[in-house]
Amino acid sequence: MEVRFRLLDVFCDRPFAGNQLCVVPDVPEGLDATGMHTVTREIGFSETTFVTKAGGDRYSMRIFTPGQELPFAGHPTLGTAYLLVAEGRVSSPVIQTTAVGEVHVEIDVEEGFGWMRQRPPVFGPEFPDRVLVARAAGLEVDDLDPDLPPQVVSTGLGPLIAPLRDLPTLRRAERDARATREVCERSGGECLYLFASTEEGVTARMFDPGVGIGEDPATGSAAGPLGAYLASRGRAGMPGCVTVAQGEQIGRPSFLHVEVASGGEELVVRVGGGVRVVGEGVFRL
To answer: Does 134 score more than 80 pLDDT?
Structure first.
């Protein structure tokens, strides 16, 4: 069996930045979930996607991390859609189907850029244990923003959003794996998403509770909820547009563009960024 794949960088304006992604654009017959997981671990990126069906303006895919299968993720959505449109397998705008349902994506191949519309935000309860949040980030309680509470917000996946006092504090943060798992279990968050406001917009870091990532360089499924969080509080010029910088601490600078608009009774959230195709290969199983 041959498994052909492409390598991409997502949420960047040049190769070897942003978040790495492996895409299998045409899953061969006989490659089951165990095989998909094996390929994902062999590649070693935070996520690998497997396109199970594509044509017209639609495609279906599965998303794997080295530790588990995910129902949705941001940079795999944008990167996979970009590749399929660039290779003429589907047309833009395109509808992606995963375990969470449909996601609408617009791709401009000439510009090397794409936008995905995420699901309407769902706001969970504020998380009161600021001591645990600080410990998960290797910080003190006074390092958290005193005016903004930690809260789980979901537009497909739900990170625990944790506002910090300033950018130097964010840069000092160090993931405590045990406390990160605990804070995510107790809050119901899929990950811990730290952020600090800057003159240019927002800078964020994502700490993984144990799905095999550690720290993620660009997290589209968390940037959308962050935009909704800011919009609900009128911060960082939201509703509107904001640029989220991420990945600096791990040498993969990334930029996620978040738009939040009022859509009647609910907020409309879009996340966009640049995509670059950087390589390809084949596994012979």
So the answer is: yes
